[in-house]
Amino acid sequence: MKLLERKEYMSFLQRHKDRHIIKVVSGVRRCGKSKLFELFQNDLLEQGVSKENIISINFEDLAFEDLQEYHALYQYVTAHMQPTGMNYIFLDEIQHVPHFEKAVDSLFIKDNTDVYITGSNAYFMSGELATLLSGRYVELKMLPLSFKEYYEASNLSANHTLREIYERYITESSFPYTLQLEGRQQDIHEYLTGLYIPSF
C-alpha cells in the first residue's frame, strides 16, 4: 500500500531538519510514527542525502534487540556514522532502551548528527520526557488520520457521498491500517479490539 503523505507532520520534520535540537515524535500505538520516519527518510534521499548517512533503528525489530542497552546503542550508531556530511539518526520506539536519554544526549552533542526519536508508551508520553531531555528537544504529538487525510487516502469519493465517508471514518476508526481492510467490519473490529486492549 502506498504510504500516506501526512503533510502536516512532514512539514514539522522538514522545518526542524538540521537544527541542533532532538526531534521527538510521540503518539498512540499504530498512529503512523514509523511510517512517518520512512516518508521523511525517502524525502532525505530525494534531496541527495547519502543512504550511508541515514541510520535507522526500530526497537520493535528483533534484529536490533542487542541494542536495547544504551552503551551498545551508542557504540553501534557511532560506528556507522559517516565522517562527512550530516548523519540522520532515527531511533524508533526508543522506550525499549532503559536510560535511552544517555545515548541520545551523547549523540546529540556531536556536531554532525541530527537525531529523531519516537515513543508510544505512557512513560514516554508523560512529563518524564521533559525531565530527561530538558531544553534539548521539540515534540510532535502525532494522531491517527484526520478526516481530511482519511478522505484523501480512502479512494471512496467516486462512489460515496461526503456524509457516507464521514460515517465510515467515525465507525471504522482513524487508524491508518483500517483503510487496508476496505470496510470489512469483522476484520476492523478484531484489529481495533487488539489495539485497544491494554498490555501489562
Relative strand content: 15-25%
CA distance, first residue to last residue? 32 Å
Q: What is the multimeric organization of the chains shown?
A: single chain
The backbone outline, from C-alpha atoms, is: elongated
The major β-sheet equals: 5 strands, parallel
Q: Could you give the order of strands across the largest sheet?
A: 2-3-4-1-5
Pattern of helices and strands: HEHEHEHEHHEHHHH
- Number of strand segments: 5
Radius of gyration: 18 Å
> How confident is the prediction overall: mean pLDDT?
86
Low-pLDDT stretches are none
Q: Structural class of the helix and strand makeup?
A: alpha/beta
Tally of DSSP helical segments? 10
The amount of helix comes to 40-55%
Give structural notes:
The chain is elongated. The chain has helices at residues 7-16, 33-46, 70-80, 100-108, 122-125, 128-132, 147-154, 162-172, 177-180, 185-196, and strands spanning 22-27, 54-58, 87-92, 113-119, 137-142. α4 links the parallel β3 and β4 (113-119). It is built from 10 helices and 5 strands. The protein has a 5-stranded parallel sheet with strand order 2-3-4-1-5, sandwiched between helices.
In short:
This protein has helices at 7-16, 33-46, 70-80, 100-108, 122-125, 128-132, 147-154, 162-172, 177-180, 185-196; strands at 22-27, 54-58, 87-92, 113-119, 137-142. The protein has 200 residues and is an alpha/beta fold. The protein has a 5-stranded parallel sheet with strand order 2-3-4-1-5, with helices on both faces.
